[in-house]
Amino acid sequence: MTPRSSKLPAHLFSDGIIQAPMAGLTDAAIVIASCRAGILGSLGAGNLEPAVIRTEIKKIRSATERPFNINLFVVNEEISPQIPTDELLILRDYYNEKGIDFELPTKYCPSFQDQFHVILDEAPAVASFTFGVLDTEAINELHKRNIFVIGTATNLLEIKNWQDIGADAVCLQGIEAGGHRETFKFSEEDFDLFTLLQQATSMAHIPIVAAGGIMDGASIVSCFRHGADAVQLGTAFLCCHEALTPEAYRNKLLSGLTANDTIVTRAFSGRPARGVRNEFIIRFDALPISPYPVRNALTQPLRKWATQKGDAENMSLWAGTGLAAIRSLGVSELVSTLRREMADFEGIEHV
């Protein structure tokens, strides 16, 4: 298979494949399964309270000695919600229509600083960050504990920000990527992954992790050939047996959808995120939307209700443009399949 780049430490990235940290859909179980399969497992901890993050880390460590990644959302601690009256009225009416109590949240998200201190205390081998950029002091504190730091970017400005503060690598999200996008430095254009890789590899001096639309071994090899040092797959793992993906969500993903069934929307969380178009998005995408984490907290009761009811039309069905290729497998079987596909693709290319 394609030789791995020496830019990434081999003890952390043995074959350059990372299971993406999908908040709300990953817990210790899928991280453990990914680590045991020989890839870098990741816990999406951005929406978890600090005590829960610590508990999940201990669960992972009790089951595997392999390195793993913890991902956090960089969120401004000074949240001053000023929710437009129109937004509240529209949401309240929709909640009433569904028979759900509508109350303003008492808390909008976990404390990032408290989450960050858990990372410093527990010192996982890898920590990744999205929704914003850290400062140099935070990076230095992570490095003191030998934590490998991965930032997230969707354009060259964001890559430069992470480079300038001393991040060890950056995860580059193409427009194909499912779920939330980084986007802390506005760009007029959104590019596909291979275009971004071409741009990034000409200016980046830190390793690049490619993300977005990567579903099989052939696309993994293609990313490596376009200059990626590693790849991160999220949508590909959504229907793995170990994922927390609810049944109605899984059924929707396995129902024959294509890239055209997805859309980048702020309707659920207040941040751009790619997911399957459904009733809620169609109804709310063009209406007033508060920024994250306010909007995310406002829609949380609806999403919880929809999960309990098995109502996919009111769930945030995050998925990338490659969702047609989703497979319902265990993590170990999926990783083995990806490796076999990589070898087969390279064999065909060399004939």
Helix percent band: 25-40%
Strand order of the largest sheet: 1-9-8-6-5-4-3-2
Main β sheet profile:
8 strands, parallel
Q: What share of residues are in beta strands? A: 5-15%
Number of helices: 12
Radius of gyration: 19 Å
Summing up helix and strand content along with how strands pair, one would put the structural category as alpha/beta
Note the overall shape.
globular
Q: How many strand segments?
A: 11
* Euclidean distance between termini CA atoms: 14 Å
Overall pLDDT: 93
- Which runs of at least 5 residues are low in confidence (pLDDT < 50)? 1-6
SSE order: EHEHEHHEHEHEEHEHEHEEHHH
Q: Can you tag this structure with a few keywords?
A:
globular; 11 strands; 351 residues; alpha/beta; disordered N terminus; three-stranded antiparallel sheet; 12 helices
Describe the structure.
- It is built from twelve helices and eleven strands.
- The chain has 351 residues and is an alpha/beta fold.
- Helix 6 links the parallel strand 5 (148-153) and strand 6.
- The longest helix is centred in the C-terminal third of the chain and has 20 residues, at 331-350.
- It is globular.
Briefly, what is this?
By secondary structure, this protein is of the alpha/beta class. It has helices at 28-36, 50-63, 85-98, 112-122, 136-144, 156-165, 193-201, 217-225, 247-253, 279-284, 294-309, 331-350; strands at residues 17-19, 41-44, 68-73, 126-130, 148-153, 169-173, 179-180, 208-211, 230-233, 262-265, 273-276.
